[in-house]
Amino acid sequence: MKINLEIVAITIPTLVPITHGFIATPSSWIPTLALRNPLLRLPTSILSSQSLADMEDDVERKLDNEEPLESIENSWRAPSRSQQSSNTFSAQLETFKDEDRETFERQKTIKKILDEDDAKWKAERRKKIMGKYADATTVEEVQKIQDEEERQIESENKRKALVAESSGVSLEILEKEYVPEEESKFQPQNVKGRSSSGGSWFDDIDMDIELGANINGVNEGPRVVNGKLISRENQQGIRVGSAGGWTLEVFPGDYVVHRKYGIGRFDKAVVKSKTKLTKEEKEAMALRRNEIVKNMVKEKQNTTAIEAVVAEFGTEKDLDPISNPQLTVLEVSYSDATVHIPVDKAYRLSRYRAGDAVIKPRLSRVKGEAWNKAKKKVEEDTIQMAQDVLALYATRETLTRSPFDPTKEVQMREFEKTFPYDPTPDQIKCFEAVENDMVWRNRPMDRLVCGDVGFGKTEVAFRALFRCVANGRQAALLSPTGVLAAQHMKNVVKRMGEDSDFKFRIAMLRGGMGKNTKVGKELREQIAEGNIDIIVGTHALLSSGLKFKDLGLLVVDEEQRFGVKQKERLKLICNGIDVLTLSATPIPRTLQMSLSGIRDTSTIRSPPPMRKPTITYVQEFSKDFVKEAISRELRRGGQCYYVVPRIAQLDEAEAIMKELFPRIRIIQAHGRMARGSAEDNVAAFAEGKYDVLLATTVIENGVDIPTVNTIIISNAQAFGMSTLYQLRGRVGRSSLQGYAYFMHKDDAITEQSAMRLQAMADLHELGSGFDVANRDLEIRGAGSLLGTEQSGMAAKVGFDLYMRMLKKSIRQLRGLDLPMVPRTNVLLPGEEGSLEITDDGDGDATHAFKIPIKYIPDEKERIRQEGVARLAESTEQLVDMTNEWKDKYGPLPLRLQSKMKTLHLHACTRTLGIDLVGLVRNVDGTKDCVLRSPGLRPRHWAYISQQLPRKIPTKGIDVIFPSRLARTEEDIVMEGGIPIDFSILEPKHEDEDEEWDALDEEEVEAMKEISSSMFVKSLDEVELEEYPRFVVRNMGSVKKGSRVDALLKVLLPAARVVHAKQSSDKEKAKVAAELREKRESIKKQKKEQETLSSNRLGYNF
Prior knowledge:
Largest sheet: 7 strands, parallel
Oligomer: single chain
Distance between the termini: 66 Å
Helix content: 40-55%
């Protein structure tokens, strides 16, 4: 007989053999009974030292003292020698029978006590776990309790949102998706590194309670998890944000970082009464409470009712927002305290992300200086990092190349018409950013385009390729696989090849076309001679024997697929040329460089029309599930991908397919097939000749077959997150619903692979590629940035706070952080001062800066000088260039002099961040010239004015800042020629961190607003009142042809100040970085010398 009891003292029951007629008893029962039954109190010394037999004797002795039974000593005592000699055998036998009866009665009594105690303890345990649900015996009763709880939760959630809204913050409750166990999208049961031992009796009893509770059978209700009742309220996350642009999304249990308190754990959002009230709030509260009492007196309510209401003032029952001012707070737990953070201060929080998400962070202590010391160390590290970043900025600016000709944009518009779809809004922004990089900047482009699979990154690349070739230079498109290269080759030839209107010469270089082969040798010679315009290829493009005649652009597709050696080779190839990188999920280091501003980044988040999110399942491998998934797709007339991580696993997978579907048509594709075989097999599959394509990761990129909408990934735990995301992107590329099944082996799951699979289950919405990359950054860490290992520092404070501190250090070192713009759209009457390229109707470009052929006869030199002059960074550079031309070619023609004034104007506007210029009519009929500068802030103009000769703003130009950038309710107007009132520049916040938060918010807002005005035709299309702007009064009265001169007169002093300051900051950062590099080099040499000396002396370290 076994009795189910909870184990308290010893978790694993130890059975002893039957002795003297006793039933074997778990050794842990006796301590348990002693703790829970007053009849069985045992001394601690006995519990810790006595044997099991002695403990059983003591239990029965206790029972004998409680019940009128024969003494246990007399009953169990063996007969003496005298008795043995006198008793007969029959008497002895009768004695044994009596003892057995007595033992049996005792055992019944023991069992009864144990059963009663067990039932009582289970009832207490059930009540503790189930709470209000403990007395419910049917699903209907549970549902009734749950409905009532739901009403309370909904009411409380509305209250939280309303109270948060009164603080100027939006709060949204997020439901954690619950998936029934049998339909779970991810259920890892045996993770490497975790204990696989069986559960204790607690687990067994809790399981019995859970199964008999009827709770988990109710959808969206409370759940029993690890022996605890988790209500729906405790499963709900929150998303808070403000109009300023910051957002925070967390769920209970997520680790967060507070800038003041450190690393904590978010628990829940609650509403509580305000403890710190302003003087106005206190007065309003007193008046409101007096009003409530007076109203009750007028209604002639009795004293008892009035006293009850007065007693509730300031408590949870007081729901009047004036009588009891409340606020929504986020409850965050730390190692020594729980902190309530108001939602309007939630921007101080960020989710904790560091180098290894598997290792959970240690919670910080609110008391003490440990967190401040950690932040101080990180701050010192970020200052050094900021110096390196600014030095890199300065180095990048020194790299120059001839910009692409803006007049060729007329041909570009013709090519754009061949795109069969309407571009999405994000695509348009990418097109514009790439054009600015290639046409309107002197330094080589280095831009990352991050967009979801199938969101249109390739079209961005095609337009860049066309622009490069239209300017007479070669372009290359690098792909990680032959399948993807073949797909690109097909599309490029279709859009730009010999059969198109553009007649570009296109070729593909791939594996098997080495420099020693006939085909490879001929193709390399054509490339070197410039007979090939666009070269599409795989890793063969990185070979040392390949020479280009005039390479102008390299497009790297799926950058994350290339290794370290290939990227080092890319650096050599890309020196001085434009580089455009495409990736759906950039590697953590690339993503971090983008987030820190080291690398220019464009993101495509808007999906194409009619696209649906792919439904994702993550579960253990099952033949039945595979059969059902493939059968479902075949029934609707579709095809399937079946992907394995290793070539050696293909035959096994095909055998499974044949076992499940004897008549199914299967074809394979992998990287070790004969040249061209993989591409041919994929093409045959695309034509519908086969039902299932059994492949490795060669289909990760470049395979776009609308009829394939189901993909099964076997051994999914062996793939990286980027690969998993790319593979899922192979399906759902039409209006049909796509399905992705990630099948893992339960005994091969590791902590990180479990997190990757969980991320794939969570991030299934369209446009989540950037989020996947962020999650990968969270799981793997950022690695090395600029050759400096900083992941340890990031782990101390979390990646988000680290990046914020880095940006703060960069801003402090830069001093004047006025953002520049790449181009300015001038909309003055008669198109005066404009450099925007338009088609005059005859296929020629207007407003282009052109040097007369007679002035500089050499075409190559003339084009180079045109590019340098058009993109001059300062008027000083233009003056030097003009003097050089005069010395070399003679006086400037009048037409060229006029054009040079336009270039001076654009040099000033770009430096001051002015992206739009035009005239605005006033009420009195006069016209002012308005120059929009989205990134300009009052502190910028104050600094510029202080550096001018008279230390006041330039006369003749006013600067207006909207009220949202000021402490006042009205716009700030800084008039020219009048000293600035510096009181308006005082910090808005007493705390330094608060002030930097405000600056962060301003910067985010400014970067959103700095969108090129390329497509603006009139100032009426823009809400100028919402932007910082320069205003030159009564510009309408200035005669035609003199407006550029008038603008130059008022803008030139400020532009010179900004350019001088920014040049100085860059030089200082460069010098600081060089000194640091020298110090590191000296330290390294010193260490090497010490090691060498030690070795000579025979010491080993």
